[in-house]
Amino acid sequence: MRLLRPLVATIFASSVVALSACGGSSSSTPAYTVPTDAGLVVKAIPSIRWDASEYTATAGDINVFVANDDNAKHILVIREGDTVVGDLELNVAKKGDSAEGTINLLPGSYFVYCIVPGHSNMKSTLTVS
Questions:
Q1: 66-80, pLDDT tens digit by residue?
Q2: Is 54 within a domain?
């Protein structure tokens, strides 16, 4: 019995070291990198909403970047009134996902909108000048 104690202690200590090496990172660093040329950066955040109620961008070709910091799927489009503008549709299916695309917009007022059913409260103003 005395011979088993050191063996059990060694196995236990080895298991603790091995399991601690398998632990996930607790870092809050996002899994995405925002492009330096992004003219519009939008983040989906918990409670099914965008990170801002108002955004601004410069008219012309706008590089749009969307990141998902929420646990739900989101699909970003740009709307003018009730009409989707252009063919930009950025899908971020899960937390940590990101997507980017380009849309050409004239000066005016638009909406950053999520077209996933049940997400109609994800509507922020976009002012393009």
A1: 999 999 999 999 999
A2: yes
